Amino acid sequence: MIRRAHRRPAAALTGLALVATAALAGCSGDSTGGTTGGSGSEEAPQASAPEKTVSDARFQLNVPRKGTVAVDTLVEVAAENGTLRKVVVKAGGKRLPGAVSEDGATWTADERLEPGTKYHVTGVAVDDDGLARKLDRSFRTDDLTLDEQTYPSLAPLAGETVGVGMPVILTFDIPVTDRKEVEKHLSVEAKPAQPGTWHWISDTEVHYRPKRYWKPGTEVTVDADLNGVNAGNGIFGQEDRRASFNVGDAVIMKIDAAAHQMRVLRNGELLRTIPISAGKPGFESRSGIKVIIEKFRYKDMDAATTGISEDDAEYYNIENVEYAQRVTYSGEFIHAAPWSVGSQGYANVSHGCIGLSTEAAGWLYSITKRGDVVDVVGTDRPMEATNGYGDWNVSWPEYKSGSALS
Fold first, then answer.
1. Mind listing the pLDDT tens digit for each residue in 84-100?
2. Matching CATH topology for 1-22+52-144 and 251-393?
3. Could you give phi then psi for residue 194, rounded to 5 degrees?
């Protein structure tokens, strides 16, 4: 859809049958007869029927002659008593993709329609006698406001290389109520193939993950064919989204908060063991499987963003924290903490983050990417499934049950 304001409008389609009837040619003929005298009689020659000049072919369209057409309609043109030779559907010079069936009986659009748009349909059908009939029709689609369209955002980005724990994330700016219809139009292709499923986090967010971590080197293509899809409650998809991304090396950070230690593995090989400091009592780091969400070379860290007020003794506000890598929405990071080097490897003194020396944090930052796995043990505080990319904390059977098509 063409974007309006800050978003593109969407398109969708439903259809009503309508017949463009064709006039049929009537056949008539004259005959004469007589007798002659003498030995016998002779029939007068009968006049031949006039040659047929009007085609028997007729068209059927699944759009009405009057009124507007729903954007989730897939336009279809059918031929009766004939074969389609050509069908063209255009809006403002832009052609709606579609194809004629092998038997020439129907033409079906590949895409749904844009809102508030006039379409022009032309076509040719030929009957058994080779006579052609032409089609020339126009129709207009329903107008939709921005509040009647939901815009999907997709992660990872096209061309991005991610870690083995990265889920596919599709978010909507207006809630989806018909999850099943939307999910029917979502697909993920992985090479090599791996079992996976969609899982609805909420009416505005759906994730996809494989049964196990992605295999390093996997090529993934996500196709969200949502333009014009009926998302329920009078809301339609505003735009298709498609992206291909790559899965890089399996970088996994295994953190034992009780032992104050991080082991860094790449494709199963231990690269380094690093002393760390995790969250202190009352601010324990969450145990569970986390995934790197985003990375910052420098990050200002204000305790107010985690709910600690400025008049609290635990309040802090540190500018330009180096090599910060977010692992929860609630504010847990892995980052350089030169102020706690004396405690790293011995005690947990942070407000929930994992603190490293500046050298170690810089080295780690240089080898990680979004989607790399951070597996934490050693505390009684569990990681929440929706506090970041916490998909791996949900069992596979439960995760599958979160699909609207399960």
1. 999 999 999 899 999 99
2. no
3. -145, 140
